[in-house]
Amino acid sequence: MKSKGIKPAAELTDKELLKNVKLTKSVLISFSVIFVLLLATCLYITVTKGFGVFSVLPLTFFPILATNIIAHRKMGDEVKKRNLV
Fold first, then answer.
1. pTM for this one?
2. pLDDT at res. 4
3. Cα 6–8–11 angle (5° rounding)?
4. Across all residues in the chain, what is the average pLDDT?
5. Under a CB-based contact definition with an 8 Å cutoff, are residues 65 and 31 in contact?
């Protein structure tokens, strides 16, 4: 049985690609805002109460942010490659 997975950007149609670019952009922006708020909160807690579990929390979510940035750039590169912009 063939599983339905995520297609690479090169296999998407133009319409699907443009839809995914908008989606990845909105996800990236919202996750970045949440990450900055998390970072600021963790820094505040670390300064006021000392080092604790919450001090390392931003480090655990940074790879997710990096993955989102890379995915958005790949989609953007594919859009430029196809001259859709």
1. 0.80
2. 62
3. 110
4. 89
5. yes
